[in-house]
UniProtKB/TrEMBL annotation:
Active site: 47
KW Lipid biosynthesis (keyword) present: yes
Catalytic activity: a (3R)-hydroxyacyl-[ACP] = a (2E)-enoyl-[ACP] + H2O
Entry protein name: 3-hydroxyacyl-[acyl-carrier-protein] dehydratase FabZ
Pfam families: FabA (PF07977)
Species of origin: Ideonella paludis
Keyword Cytoplasm: yes
Length: 145
């Protein structure tokens, strides 16, 4: 899935769109996405000027967006459908290494379970094979009016 297909499925836009490409997708199982981290990201101006580091909350958001793409693909919803995926919870979030300009963040999210419209995922973000962050995410799909 390239950026054009991602834009059709996610409501996020610059500067909040944090997925550049989908490399692998197994419906109802897992997704592998890419976020190319560049010095041009607006958050680097203040986080931190002398040692730019991607904020952990944005790494978690990139994981959630990846999980949302998996949800949309698994539910086989048409792009442009009036459905959004909301972040519902985070458990066991851990940050293991900083993510800096020039890094390519690979995000893997897998469906742990689905119950009552709540999706639970296990997600991990890596840079050059090293774990940068991991978390358990909960999301829910809702129709918007």
């Amino acid at each position: 899935m390239d950026i054009h297909q991602i834009l059709k499925r996610l409501p996020h836009r610059y500067p909040m769109l944090l997925v550049d490409r989908v490399r692998e997708l197994e419906k109802n199982v897992r997704i592998l996405t890419v976020k190319n981290v560049t010095i041009n990201e607006p958050f680097f101006n203040g986080h931190f000027p002398h040692r730019p580091v991607m904020p952990g909350v944005l790494i978690l958001e990139a994981m959630a967006q990846s999980a949302a793409l998996l949800s949309f693909a698994s539910a086989e919803l048409d792009p442009g459908d009036d459905t959004v995926v909301y972040f519902a919870g985070i458990d066991s979030a851990r940050f293991k290494r900083p993510v800096e300009p020039g890094d390519q963040l690979l995000i893997e999210a897998s469906i742990d379970r689905v119950k009552g419209g709540i999706y639970k995922y296990k997600a991990q973000a890596t840079v050059d094979g090293e774990v940068a962050a991991s978390a358990e995410l909960m999301c829910t799909m809702r129709k918007i009016a």
